[in-house]
């Protein structure tokens, strides 16, 4: 059983945020207000989540659990687009589909197939595991989507050159797709490589603090990390594939103008190819 925390202990921990605020002030980073707002939002959000989860745990019914999961997924899909610099018309929908598909499938597989939780919607397991999978997936989706859209725009001339030489849209953009998916997978793979040596992951630490035997905590963490690795790969691949379908049409043409912020009109290569002979 973990040791209880009083309000003054939480307040003492909150005072540590002054380190960030002082550094921002001394170095003129301009982040003082952002740090204070972020800290206040985190406290308010976590307190609200604590109240909601207490209510959900008492109900023990699948509908509230699924409803909360859908809200979490919707917010994760929206957040994953927040850091993407180049966007297109249905980017939010594609992001939601990628996050929802990978997170719900893998969380369901984990609960019902690996951990064999009965009932499968047990809130004590379902919501925390879904939350971890969503957090990891949205990072991968965001990085992969940003890399792909930036590369498509930055390497527009090369891609159109391949298309002009007879390559299909997949052949022309294969290297950009592969680089984007790799970018989305790397953070989780880097974490796995040093886990247990450089860092002790949060789930394992939380279980140990709650009184679970270290061997049990380690097994749970291993399972979760394999699930997170799969979710980042599946989410990254899905969102890049959807973005690829949005930016290349069925006639094997790059539609870079669909990217918001992309320069409109033909590139110099297009002008050259369109020049009458």
- Morphology call: globular
Q: Provide the β-strand percentage band.
A: under 5%
| Unreliable parts | 262-277
Tally of contiguous helical segments: 11
Structural class: mainly alpha
- Sketch the major β-sheet: none
Proportion of helical residues: over 70%
Determine the mean pLDDT.
Answer: 87
User: How far apart are the termini?
Assistant: 81 Å
Number of strands: 0
Order of helices and strands: HHHHHHHHHHH
Radius of gyration: 23 Å
Summary keywords:
277 residues, mainly alpha, globular, disordered C terminus, 0% strand
Write a concise synopsis of the structure shown.
This protein is an all-alpha fold.
Topology (SSEs and partners):
Blueprint lengths: L6 H8 L2 H10 L5 H28 L2 H20 L9 H24 L8 H32 L1 H9 L4 H26 L7 H8 L4 H34 L20 H7 L3
Helix pairs in contact: 2-3, 4-5, 4-6, 5-6, 5-10, 6-8, 6-10, 7-8, 7-11, 8-10, 9-10
Describe this structure in words.
It is a single chain. It is built from eleven helices and no strands. The chain has 277 residues and is mainly alpha-helical.
